[in-house]
Amino acid sequence: MFEKTLNDLVRGIRNNKKNEAKYISQCVQEIKEELKGDIPNRKAIAIQKLTYLQMLGYDISWAAFNIVEVMSHTRFTNKRIGYLAASQSFHDGTEVVMLATNLIRKDFTSNNQYEAGVALNALANVCTPDLARDLANDLVTLMNSSKPYVRKK
Fold first, then answer.
1. Band (4; pLDDT cuts 50, 70, 90)
2. What is residue 73's DSSP assignment?
3. CB-based contacts of 106: which residues, under 8 Å, 6+ apart?
4. Residue 116: which region, alpha, beta or left (left: phi > 0; alpha: psi -120 to 50)?
5. pLDDT tens digits for 16-64?
6. Quick one: 147 exposed, middle or buried, by C-beta within 10 A (0-12, 13-18, 19+)?
7. 2 falls in which pLDDT band (50, 70, 90)?
8. Residue 78's closest CA among 44, 108, 116, 107?
9. Which stretch of DSSP H or E encloses residue 94?
10. How far apart, in whole angstroms, are the C-alpha atoms of residue 81 and residue 45?
């Protein structure tokens, strides 16, 4: 089964200007199938395509749990895609934000400063009062980090 990359999706949208809605609905169905699989990289690419569609104005709230799943990947490139999608699509009403609390806390304490950086960036965009209360102590600890990159974030 051939999966489209983000570049293929963008090209397809440009080439199907007359039937854009039909093409995008077909792509969303393909993305849903990709998200059902067990291959982490395929899920990350599917979330990347959904993030692009969200920037075009399409609703991707149905994929919130899949976004959290990609955020939890061990590979940084996949994790970054998940955090970007969360930053752009999560809001106060998103139910899975509270599920991400322990994941964000784990990434704050990661040895990889860039994982802590993407978690901080996402938190700045999706923070709710409950999430702020739960992660306040961790944020104070990060402000005293030995890594300048983390302190700056």
1. confident
2. -
3. none
4. alpha
5. 989 999 999 999 999 999 999 888 899 999 999 999 999 999 999 999 9
6. middle
7. low
8. 44
9. none
10. 8
